[in-house]
Every structure is written in structure tokens, then in C-alpha cells.
Amino acid sequence: MDALDGWTRSEHTDDVAGVPTTHPVWRRGSGPGVVVVHELPGLTAGVIRFGEELVAAGYTVVLPHLFGPVGREFGAVDVARVFPRVCVSREFTKIARGETTPVAGWLRSLARELHAELGGPGVGALGMCFTGGFALAMMVDDSTVAPVLCQPAVPFIGLPGRAADLNLSPADADAVRRRAADGCSVLGIRYASDPSIGTRFDTLTSLIGDAFIRVELEGSGHSTVTEHRSQVAVDAVLAFFAERLQHAP
């Protein structure tokens, strides 16, 4: 059975670094809107299953497909194939410090469109690993009121200064600070022993203080809501969305 049976496919187009760019978007459910941005190597079966959990909790979930295969279980071979392509793509930053990933503008446009359709206080956004910081960049736009960062791992650690970097330009970091001061909280989830996140959670605490809700899981793992799924993590996401999107599951 196709992992996306029951989901509706459409497309969304907006500029990325000044170039009109179209990506498929899969949608399912009803209720407040949530944009779930998949991790490497693509829109895996694990990401889709997490999306279905949100649908069951009463949300309209959209899954943009930015790169890689669709509907397959996570596999190291797929990671090895997709990673080089992502690394040369103009849509994403990988090692640059103090820069917002170019595809953030496309994702903000998607969130605005969803909010305009569904109304309410705004939409939720969740990124994971390679896309973990994308939800923070989406928060720059008022349409995103519930950003969730699951194990944000970009820019890649290995060169000086990158372990603390939030994948945001200075202007966007200022916008995040202002929105947090106005009451928009940010949820961050990681396994405490996961080295790929570096000190980004400390940076977020310094940037927005108590507006950063920090969940650090015990044990070993990386993908907090998919491949190494933690019920603690999933419950934290559901509670955060329910509060911020004013939704009673």
C-alpha cells in the first residue's frame, strides 16, 4: 500500500533566491494547519506516519516534498544518494554561518497560504534534522505561531563557529527575538546525547530566553519524532500545538 494513500497532492510555487520554484505538497486532515518539513533523505514513511498522528489529533497537515524519495522507509543508501544533491542545491544552506536557508521564503509563503485559507491564530511548523531550523526561519512571518525544532543540525558541525549557529541571518534573528518578546514561543526537542545539535539550544536560550521551551530526552537517538520516536517528544509537540493553535484535541 502506498504510504500516502488518503493524502491529496498539490503543488506550491514561490521564489527561492529570486527563482520561481515549485514543489509538491501532500495534504490531509481538518482543523488548524501544521506544516511538517521532512528530514534527510526525503519524505520518508516515518515522516508520513508522524503526519498521520497529527491528522488523528485534529490538524490539517501539509507535507512539502523538497528533495529525495517519497514514501520509502528510512535507508542509509537513500541518504548517500540524496546528500550530495542537497549539498549543491541553491535552495539550502549547509555550512554558511549567519545565513537563512533560501527555501525559507518558499515555506513562509506556503504557511501564509494555509493560514489565509484556514484562519485562526496561525499555523504550526515543524522541521527536523537538516530542516530543523527551517521552522525557526518560518517564524519570521506572522503566519507561523507555533514553530517546533526537532534536532536542528544545520549548519553542519565540523568547522569553527557552526555548532552554535541557528541558520538565521542577523535580520531574521532580530525578527525572531521580536516575535518571541511579543509572545510567540519556540519548542525545541533533542536527545541530550546527540552531538549533531551542538550548542544551538544554548544559543536559542540566549536569544529569546524563557520563550524557548527546551525538551532534552534521555537515552541515545537522533530523530525524535520519526526513526527514534519518543512518546515524550510527540506529546510535547501535541501539547504545544494545542496551546498555540488554540485547539482542543
Automatic annotation (TrEMBL):
<feature type="region of interest" description="Disordered">
    <location>
        <begin position="1"/>
        <end position="25"/>
    </location>
</feature>
<dbReference type="GO" id="GO:0016787">
    <property type="term" value="F:hydrolase activity"/>
</dbReference>
<dbReference type="InterPro" id="IPR002925">
    <property type="entry name" value="Dienelactn_hydro"/>
</dbReference>
<keyword id="KW-0378">Hydrolase</keyword>
<feature type="domain" description="Dienelactone hydrolase">
    <location>
        <begin position="30"/>
        <end position="146"/>
    </location>
</feature>
<protein>
    <submittedName>
        <fullName>Dienelactone hydrolase family protein</fullName>
    </submittedName>
</protein>
<dbReference type="InterPro" id="IPR029058">
    <property type="entry name" value="AB_hydrolase_fold"/>
</dbReference>
<dbReference type="Pfam" id="PF01738">
    <property type="entry name" value="DLH"/>
</dbReference>
